[in-house]
Design goal:
The complex is a heterodimer of chains A (241) and B (596).
Chain A (H helix, E strand, L loop, with lengths): L3 E6 L2 E6 L4 H7 L23 E4 L2 E4 L10 E3 L3 H17 L14 H8 L16 E2 L5 E4 L8 H9 L5 E4 L6 E4 L26 E3 L12 H4 L17
Parallel strand pairs in A: 1-5
Antiparallel strand pairs in A: 1-2, 3-4, 3-5, 6-7, 7-10, 8-9
Chain B lengths: L4 H13 L7 H12 L4 H10 L4 H10 L11 E6 L2 H5 L2 H12 L12 E6 L11 E3 L2 E3 L4 H12 L18 E3 L2 H4 L6 H9 L1 H11 L11 H9 L5 E7 L8 H8 L1 H15 L3 E6 L7 H13 L15 E6 L9 H8 L22 E6 H13 L1 H5 L2 E2 L2 E2 L1 E8 L5 E6 L2 E2 H8 L4 E6 L5 E4 L6 E2 L9 E6 L4 H15 L5 H18 L5 H17 L3 H5 L2 H9 L1 H5 L14 H4 L1 H7 L12
Parallel strand pairs in B: 1-2, 5-13, 6-7, 6-9, 7-8, 12-18
Antiparallel strand pairs in B: 1-3, 3-4, 10-11, 12-13, 14-17, 15-16, 15-18
Helix pairs in contact in B: 3-4, 6-7, 9-10, 9-16, 10-11, 13-16, 19-20, 19-23, 20-21, 21-23
Classes of the chains: A alpha+beta (241), B alpha/beta (596).
């Protein structure tokens, strides 16, 4: 049996099991820490930085930082929530996100986190990148405009589907999601709509075809509740929509 | 494969020469780039096939490194170093002159495939600027007169190997020697001294010396070695010879003149922890030293200092050199390990540290070139010899590479704790108004702070010292550094990937005289955010020079802000409607947005 301990989370004493990360321990105790590139079934990635907290006075990512006995974690301070809003605003400014007419609207975690953090504008000048859309696959399409490089699809395809359909290329602002086929097109890859990789995209970058408005906007997942309320649900029931 | 048999066979040869080892992918891609001026799609698919890697992995690697290209570059591939001190020496002028003479646009290959002229991040020859690379060979002290001749040689297709030898001359640049540069170890003597003392006792000696990592971060070398010593399992030794920090060139000198000491230090570390293999990860810009280093390695193998039964110790240890391909982030320890494994150089998550889980998932000692050299000297001469220099919390001497506005640029070995004022007196930089200590990632100090010390306790540096006099525009310096970081960000984490772009944007807006007070506040706010939230040291330090210069040279910023405007849009409204104005034929007064 794993050793138990306690740590301070925004001034509240919470229990943790030896080896747990801050995010896991907080989630088990019903505390939501915003995140986009994290899913409990995959190893932490630490790229979105949304889950950053202050642990014993130092900024770190809650998704990979292990909890230690007596650790003092700050999460919902005005400073940190302000920084988190900056992360989301930067993601909105970096890509091309058209919430009003994105088919993922209402189910999109980026949008939901933005609501949760009270984001009312994108603050920064939009970069309007020019990215190609890939509609070559019969059952799904990739809208690269909305990709936030969380690599959930990369991990799902590699670790669950054992297909390695996705990768990342380039550097800096040129970094881009890549499909693992000679042509670079999804239609020429081994991707299937039943893949785990088809289900994990937290935004509207990888979306199924012919299912866009099965649930009307207004009745979708985050139209009905705040993303911060989800944490009490076990992760496995949290999958997909 | 549809390609001609000959080309296919060549790719085969490259893969075979590298034993089809996946971790040598970057070395294979470098060879393809060198022989064909780019990495064609055919090569990407070939390596993916023979190494059993996803195509995306190979393509991702090619697109990550600056010196690898997916489209042809030209028979002559010329890069000019774009470090700020190279610029001060006229690098942009000579680059433009060459481009004009050859009729090319910077960064674009000429239509006939003859040549490309580009700028690249610092090539590590700042004291002999303007410097650069042609087909992987380093040239120094480029002048406009030489450019005329170079253009003609290129037009006539004369191979770079037949160009005037003096263009490729590299001085060692040593101006002042201290205990490190004065201590030349007869090959094998430090290893034998370590074995005679006993390896655990040598570890004690390295710990007792107080040697801290000479790459800049300053982690105690002895403690790192102890950590690996206490970790069971397979071990590796890696040397960080990436030296990508603009303005640093001291490892270049050590690699060229003190290779034996470096290999000796790595070997001692290897024997100590029971590692069988070590790797020197050397930046691609230093490829011209490869032959000399291979010769030293061969001599050491022949002398029984590498390979099986090193110095009759009963232990085996050997070394390989891997080359980078133009990525500053690979100087970050965990990114370096990723790159050594043949991947994109993306910094890993920490913990665990590399000492626990490093190269190929095994315990790894990774140190800077200077650290290994000094560790070897400590093993030979003892801890007291070393720690008699420096100050209480920063023992020993430090190699500083000094460039910019000073009379005697070059390498200076000085005790840690030397003041900036003393450094300036040594190099003839008394007229400085600002000194950038530690490169763009370091600290920029003004005259009021010249009594501060170069040490781990105060102004830490991997070795870069850049001197700026009163004529220099600090806003422009900071802008150039902002461009550098935006170019070198690996793109993994949001704050760095997006934040460095935004910092670049605002630095340009302000430097171009289009900035407002609000934009200056944006720089500070984004800068603090990027520092706090980035995944690795690159992002954590990327905003430093902007923030430092805003604080220390505020008048240089405020004097070019638009005083009357509180806000200037991010785009030119007039320019944006030009097309629709032309289509509709509207040219009336009401349509003129900026008519006042």
């Amino acid at each position: 049996m794993a050793d138990k301990g306690h740590f301070s989370f925004d001034g509240v004493q919470l229990p943790f099991l030896q080896g747990q990360t801050i995010l896991q321990a907080a989630a088990d105790a019903g505390h939501y820490i915003p995140h986009l590139c994290y899913r409990p079934e995959f190893p932490p990635h630490g790229s979105c930085k949304l889950c950053s907290v202050k642990a014993n006075g130092k900024f770190t990512s809650a998704c990979f930082e292990p909890v230690t006995e007596g650790m003092k974690v700050e999460s919902e301070t005005p400073e940190i929530q302000g920084y988190r809003k900056r992360v989301v605003q930067m993601l909105f400014a970096e890509g091309n996100h058209y919430c009003p007419f994105c088919q993922q609207s209402g189910n999109c975690k980026l949008q939901a986190v933005a609501y949760h953090l009270g984001m009312e504008d994108t603050h920064y000048a939009h970069q309007y990148p020019r990215r190609q859309l890939d509609a070559s696959h019969p059952d799904a399409m990739i809208d690269y405009d909305r990709c936030i490089l969380c690599e959930l699809c990369v991990r799902a395809s590699r670790d669950v589907d054992h297909k390695q359909v996705f990768g990342v290329a380039g550097r800096g602002i040129e970094a881009r999601l890549l499909v693992n086929s000679p042509s670079g097109l999804l239609g020429d890859s081994r991707f299937s709509i039943t893949d785990a990789a088809a289900q994990v995209c937290p935004v509207g970058a990888i979306v199924p075809k012919k299912a866009a408005f099965a649930v009307p906007i207004g009745q979708r997942r985050y139209d009905t509740h705040d993303i911060g309320e989800e944490l009490a649900c076990p992760p496995s029931e949290n999958k997909g929509d | 494969m549809a390609s001609p048999l000959g080309q296919s066979a060549t790719l085969h040869d490259i893969a075979a020469r590298h034993l089809h080892a996946r971790h040598r992918l970057l070395q294979m891609l470098r060879e393809v780039q060198a022989s064909r001026s780019y990495v064609p799609e055919e090569a990407i698919q070939f390596f993916a096939h023979v190494l059993n890697l996803p195509i995306a992995r190979v393509r991702g690697c090619v697109e990550f490194y600056s010196f690898l290209h997916t489209t042809p570059r030209g028979q002559f591939d010329v890069y000019f170093s774009d470090s700020v001190t190279d610029r001060m020496a006229g690098s942009q002028i000579v680059a433009k002159r060459l481009a004009d003479r050859l009729g090319v646009t910077l960064g674009q290959p000429r239509a006939d495939g003859r040549v490309t002229v580009s700028m690249t991040s610092c090539t590590g020859h700042c004291e002999q600027a303007p410097a650069g690379l042609v087909n992987g060979r380093v040239f120094t002290r480029m002048t406009e007169a030489r450019i005329e001749k170079m253009a003609s040689l290129i037009e006539h297709g004369v191979p770079a190997s037949e160009w005037p030898a003096e263009w490729f001359h590299v001085d060692d640049g040593i101006r002042e020697r201290g205990i490190t540069l004065d201590t030349v170890i007869p090959p094998g003597e430090a290893i034998r001294a370590a074995l005679a003392r006993g390896l655990p006792a040598t570890l004690d000696e390295v710990e007792r010396s107080g040697l801290q990592g000479r790459g800049g971060a300053g982690f105690p070398v002895g403690r790192k070695w102890r950590g690996a010593f206490d970790t069971k399992g397979t071990h590796y030794i890696t040397c960080n010879a990436d030296e990508g920090e603009p303005g640093t060139f001291k490892d270049r000198v050590l690699l060229a003149k003190y290779a034996d000491e470096l290999f000796e230090g790595m070997t001692i570390a290897g024997l100590l922890v029971g590692a069988k293999k070590g790797y020197v990860y050397m930046r691609g810009e230093y490829e011209y030293m490869m032959e000399g280093l291979q010769t030293v390695l061969a001599e050491r193998r022949a002398a029984g200092l590498l390979g099986e039964n090193v110095c009759e110790s009963g232990l085996d240890f050997d070394l390989r050199i891997h080359l980078g391909a133009g990525a500053y982030v690979c100087g970050e320890q965990s990114a370096l390990l990723e790159s050594l494994e043949g991947k994109r150089g993306i910094p890993r998550v920490r913990p665990p540290s590399a000492v626990k889980i490093g190269l190929f998932g095994q315990s790894t000692i990774n140190n800077n070139v200077e650290s290994f050299v000094q560790a070897a000297q400590i093993a030979w001469k003892g801890a007291d010899w070393f720690s008699a220099h420096g100050e209480a919390k920063s023992r020993g001497t430090k190699l500083l590479s000094i460039a910019g506005d000073c009379q005697r640029p070059g390498i200076y070995e000085l005790p840690l704790g030397t003041t900036v004022r003393e450094v300036l007196a040594r190099c003839g930089g008394e007229n400085a108004k600002a000194v950038q200590v530690g490169g763009p990632a370091g600290t920029c100090v003004g005259r009021a702070e010249f009594d501060r010390r170069v040490s781990y306790a105060d102004l830490s540096t991997g070795g870069s010292i850049m001197v700026f006099n009163d004529l220099r525009d600090m806003v422009d310096v900071a802008r150039q550094f902002a461009h550098f970081f935006a170019h070198e960000s690996c793109g993994f984490c949001t704050p760095c990937r997006v934040g460095t772009q935004m910092l670049k944007h605002y630095a340009d807006k302000i430097a171009d005289g289009q900035g407002t007070q609000r934009d200056l506040e944006q720089v500070s706010s984004i800068g603090e955010f990027v520092k706090a939230y980035s995944h690795c040291g690159l992002g954590e330090t990327a905003p430093n020079t902007l923030l430092d210069t805003i604080k220390r040279f505020p008048e240089e910023y405020t004097s070019r802000l638009l005083a009357e405007a509180d806000f200037v849009p991010e785009f030119d409204l007039d320019a944006s409607v030009t097309e629709s104005r032309a289509l509709t034929g509207r040219h009336d007064q009401l349509d003129q947005i900026h008519s006042d």
